[in-house]
Amino acid sequence: MNIGIVCYPTYGGSGVLATELGKALADKGHMVHFITYQQPVRLNAFHANIFYHEVQVPTYPLFDFPPYESALSSTMVDVILNQKLDLLHVHYAIPHASTAYLAKQIAAKHGIRIPFITTLHGTDITLVGKDKTYEPVVTFSINESDAITAVSKNLREETYKSFPIEKEIEVIYNFVDTARFKRRDLSHFRNAIAPNGEKILLHVSNFRKVKRVPDVVNTFKIVREKIPAKLLLVGDGPDRPVIEAMCREYGICPDVRFVGKQEQLEDVMSISDLFILPSEYESFGLAALEAMASEVPVLSSNAGGLPEINIDGETGYTSPVGDVESMAKHAIQVLENPELLAKLRAGALKQAQRFHINNIIPEYEKLYQKVIKPR
Ligand code: GMT
């Protein structure tokens, strides 16, 4: 198939997932065309079946806001007509579903039928999309999609609760490439971070409010009072100054390492003992799945789709949102008990294998076949 993928090219989970999906489809022999305003971060190697079409957004003194959506739709039309796409798969509803709808209408004027699939990822539904400034366009463009997918059952329910959706939303879970995310012995790296055999706790996110990174620091503070430990914070975002201030106030700066945005996440995961994800909401929690594939048990909140991924007592533990005492209690319990840690590590790996890339890609291929069949 000749597939157009539209996504945010940055470090966000939806862009990462879309890029990994495109790479996997290309490996299976499909032609994949990425249409984005910047090269996606995980699109970092040459592949004969992958094409990249940059969306140029010209500015003009009249524009306070350059019309990105028009530029994106026009680029989509160009790629549809010239590359003979069979379908468009857009990730994150805003604004990709409405731009795909427009591109589809324009292509129809050229006698081309181009179906589009919208994959809902999380905040496009639970945060941004609900805002009444966007809601009518989001509802319309989701309903106009030829197929709709959500990355968890919880996100599907949230979508039906918040928007008058008239179509079926199919759940296709996120996936992990277990060949890439697998635990490796990186003791030199581990020793550099934790030279005295300290335990390593890890958090990865975009440091936005919804991630509740201060809860990570508060959990770590309690754990560190009992067990020598280091905290690795991967990513960056608006809450970073708050977190840095907390570390200074608690006097724990020497044990907290801000690693910044990282492409080699698998290395950081390989040296970690526990992954912490205390989010206010999480449709899926892709980073938690990648941690599990690296045999790192997860301590997460029980919000959104997290309990579908992180099975309490099997792959880690879930706690109510904001309950740092509970997360710290679980962390101490696991870190002080090597047998429990080993059991959870095995459980995490087993769970990651259920979301193996080879199990999930065929679900997308099946859906693609369904939408490209002329009705
Ligand atoms: O909030 C983020 O981490 C970014 C956001 C995105 O759409 O880029 O992530 C969402 O999509 C990911 C991939 O499907 C999910 O794993 C995340 O759980 C989801 N984030 C939220 O629901 C807050």
From TrEMBL:
GO BP terms: bacillithiol biosynthetic process
Q: Which domain of life is it from?
A: Bacteria
What range(s) does the Glycosyltransferase subfamily 4-like N-terminal domain occupy? Answer: 11-180
The protein depicted here goes by the name N-acetyl-alpha-D-glucosaminyl L-malate synthase BshA
Q: Supply the gene name.
A: bshA
Mind telling me which NCBIfam families this protein's record contains?
A: thiol_BshA
Q: Which GO terms describe its molecular function?
A: glycosyltransferase activity
Q: Which InterPro entries match?
A: Glyco_trans_1 (IPR001296), Glyco_trans_4-like_N (IPR028098), Glycosyltransferase_grp1 (IPR050194), Thiol_BshA (IPR023881)
The record places domain Glycosyl transferase family at 194-348
